[in-house]
Design brief:
- There is one protein chain.
- By secondary structure, the chain is α/β, with parallel strands linked by helices.
- It has one domain: DHBP synthase, CATH 3.90.870.10.
- It is 27% helix and 23% strand.
- The chain is built from seven helices and twelve strands.
- A ten-stranded mixed sheet has the order 1-8-2-3-7-4-6-5-11-12, with helices on both faces. Strands 9-10 form a two-stranded antiparallel ribbon.
- Helix 1 runs parallel beside helix 5 (117-126).
- The longest helix has 14 residues, at 69-82.
- The radius of gyration is 16 Å and the shape is globular.
- The chain starts with a strand and ends in a 7-residue tail after the last helix.
Length: 209
């Protein structure tokens, strides 16, 4: 399929095609959540490794999680500070989350709002997408659109000529994965260090361990 315009990519995603576009961390490989199995096939990825749901806003993502008003009040502190941004929150999943997204633990789901203008524009039109990094499982994340198109010939890859590309990635992307923080036992737990330093979270009053 190769490189396509933003309009073509959005149309393809809505039509349940796999797509790739830049984010503030690394480029995403994405598809409608209910068709997440396609991502596992493309990446040759073990099915016990969960996908992340990415949306244009917390409002778009909220239907995929369950929470009490008190819990959401705590979550909002982190959301307001770091979203849009490179922080993935692992939260209790609602029944709207397809089992394929997290077959190892269907009770949780990772969600994120990226801090990248193109990603937000695309997600605003497609709705929430199941995402992961654009690479074959076990290899380094691809950051160049040519490499992504060559590795995944059946994926619609966003043509990003309008963005400056330097050293294989556009200047709006860090090239680092997101930091992953989960809500467990009414506390935040750090699952993975990434673009956001753990210290910058743990120094807040979010009861982070």
């Amino acid at each position: 399929m190769g490189k396509v315009s933003q309009a073509e990519l959005v149309a393809g995603a809505i039509a349940r095609e796999a797509v790739s576009f830049p984010t503030d961390t690394v480029p995403a490989l994405a598809i409608k959540p209910e068709y997440g199995q396609r991502i596992y096939q493309l990446k040759q990825r073990a099915t016990h490794k969960p996908l992340i749901l990415m949306g244009a806003s917390i409002t778009d993502l909220l239907p995929f999680v369950t929470y009490t008003p008190d819990q959401f009040k705590v979550w909002q502190k982190l959301i307001k500070k770091y979203w849009p941004g490179a922080l993935t929150l692992v939260l209790p999943a609602s029944k709207l989350v397809p089992a394929v997204i997290n077959s190892n633990n269907t009770n949780t789901v990772g969600i994120r709002v990226p801090n990248h203008p193109l990603a937000l524009q695309i997600l605003g039109q497609t709705g929430v997408l199941a995402t992961t990094s654009a690479n074959i499982s076990g290899t380094e994340a691809l950051t160049n659109t040519d490499d992504i198109a060559q590795t995944f010939p059946d994926v619609l890859v966003l043509e990003t000529n309008n963005l400056e590309e330097k050293n294989g990635k556009n200047n709006l992307s860090s090239g680092l994965p997101s930091t992953v923080v989960g809500w467990q036992d009414d506390r935040w737990q750090v699952f993975r260090q990434g673009s956001i330093a753990i210290e910058s979270i743990s120094n807040t009053n979010y009861d982070l361990c």
